[in-house]
Specification:
disordered N terminus; 7-stranded antiparallel beta sheet; alpha+beta; conserved putative lor/sdh protein from methanococcus maripaludis s2 fold
């Protein structure tokens, strides 16, 4: 029996089915070969990105028209137009939160001068009276006075014997008995020229006797600054016997640092406090700025005159002087928001859409953690008060230019 005879009927059926499938696949392939090939589906072409310039991120000031090396030998990278579509640099909000950045609004407020100086109470040198001897003589008596004593007007200091007055007074009394008015006027004039006061001459008229011992008194009240008269001493005409300083007003000489001298002007209001009178404030004004700078301390002296009717303010008391207590209106930003590079002063502006841009400003006075902005910002703009240094570094790496002074000075309603 042949091999073909040994194949069963089911096996023949399976083999026939396999031949049919092979034949069908071959016919389908021949049919595909006879047809033209279908074109591949085209893919969308990416839009071409516009390159503005080439730069080195480490040198944001350098820009190049094409690829190459920077001055540091680093490969240049392109700067695309879409990266500068909005002003400033974009910071991820999560990164900004990690930096601890705090954004505050630029506001207009009152900035106190913040200028506080130390001072010392001193005598008012314009209220100084000098007591002199009108004629030479001998001190017969003193009245137990000493420097530092407080005396009233007319207080006696010493009795002085003036021998040369005796003859002139006797002559005057003799002329007076004649009744000649002209001679009397001439004799009285002579007594005045010899140094006698009108009060002393009137005493001679009333008593009719010469008076050669004169009591020297204080013409005004105050404190005896110097006293140069002692019992038994000889005095000469014109010799200074005492100096009396009034206490109706006192001076406070405040030391103003040279760097802050421009903030102090004559006539400026001041408030003064003293440790001797806690809780009390004395109001006054700067009467003058002395023209000399103290070489050792580099300070100027601001002189303040205060009323002292009750005599409570004593010379050599220490005082604290605050100038410009009322304060002035100004555009203010937190002092911590300011970046000083040495060449210019910047703040980091917080723009819409989470973008940030440095802005150059010009500052004025500083007090209480606030700084006055003279130019570069407008009321209502927002700045970064903390973490701004890292944002500024990011802006520098991205080549973001700072907004110059002038762009931030226009009112908010005039901005485009």
């Amino acid at each position: 029996m042949s091999a073909f005879d040994r194949i069963s009927a089911p096996q023949l059926a399976v083999a026939a089915l396999a031949l049919a499938l092979v034949a069908g696949a071959g016919g389908y392939g021949l049919a595909r070969l006879g047809q033209p090939s279908a074109a591949p589906t085209p893919q969308a072409k990416a839009p071409e990105r516009k390159i503005l310039y080439w730069h080195d991120p480490m040198l944001p000031a350098e820009r190049y028209p094409g690829p190459g090396k920077s001055s540091m030998g680093m490969d240049l990278i392109p700067k695309y137009a879409e990266e500068t579509a909005g002003a400033g640099v974009s910071i991820n909000p999560a990164s900004l939160s990690n930096l601890g950045a705090r954004i505050v609004a630029v506001t207009r407020g009152t900035l106190p001068s913040g200028l506080t100086a130390t001072g010392v109470v001193e005598f008012n040198q314009r209220d100084l009276t000098v007591v002199q001897a009108r004629a030479g003589g001998f001190v017969q008596r003193v009245y137990n006075r000493a420097p530092g004593d407080r005396v009233g007007a007319g207080a006696p200091l010493a009795d002085v014997l003036v021998p040369e007055w005796g003859g002139a007074q006797a002559e005057y009394l003799a002329v007076r008995r004649t009744g000649d008015a002209g001679l009397m006027r001439a004799a009285r004039q002579r007594l005045t020229l010899l140094g006698m006061s009108d009060g002393l001459i009137d005493q001679i008229d009333r008593s009719g006797r010469p008076k050669t011992v004169v009591t020297i008194s204080t013409p005004t009240g105050g404190v005896i600054r110097t006293l140069n008269v002692r019992s038994g001493m000889t005095v000469m005409a014109g010799q200074t016997l005492a100096e009396i300083n009034g206490l109706g007003t006192v001076w406070i000489n405040a030391a103003i640092p040279e760097a802050l001298a421009g903030q102090v002007q004559a006539g400026a209001p001041v408030s003064v406090t003293l440790a001797a009178f806690p809780g009390q404030t004395f109001a006054g004004r700067v009467s003058t700025i002395l023209p000399e700078v103290q070489g050792e301390t580099r300070t100027l002296t601001a002189r303040i005159e205060l009323s002292n009717r009750d005599g409570r303010l004593k010379p050599d008391m220490f005082a604290t002087v605050r100038l410009g207590e009322a304060g002035t209106s100004a555009l203010l930003v937190p002092s911590e928001a300011i970046i000083r590079t040495g060449r210019r002063t910047l703040v980091m502006l917080a723009l819409d859409g989470g973008r940030y841009q440095p802005a150059e400003i010009r500052t004025g006075r500083e007090a209480g953690g606030q700084t006055e902005v003279l130019a570069g910002l407008a009321d209502g703009e927002k700045v970064v008060a903390s973490g701004q240094f890292l944002i500024d570094s990011e802006a520098s790496l991205a080549g973001i230019a700072a907004r110059p002074i002038g762009d931030g000075d226009m009112p908010m309603g005039d901005r485009p």
